[in-house]
Amino acid sequence: MGKSTVAANLAMSLARRGKQVLLCDCDFDMRCLDLVLGVENDILYDIYDVAKGRVTLQDALLRDERTENLWFAAAPYRGGGDI
Asked: Is 16 inside a domain boundary?
């Protein structure tokens, strides 16, 4: 989880400085940014759903309630072999 922790902390730091940040978890085999951010129970859609055209990116984004300018897009739990 080292890379994910660094990515999450950098995203939060930039968002707190007023930057608009989209943090996208692209690790289809072992996603964990949702765990680092504490939103693992809030995910309805992921970037695989967006790529397949099932939902829009806006539908898949989660806004971090602690950091106003940070949005998160989750990788799917399943392997991404179809992409």
From this structure: yes
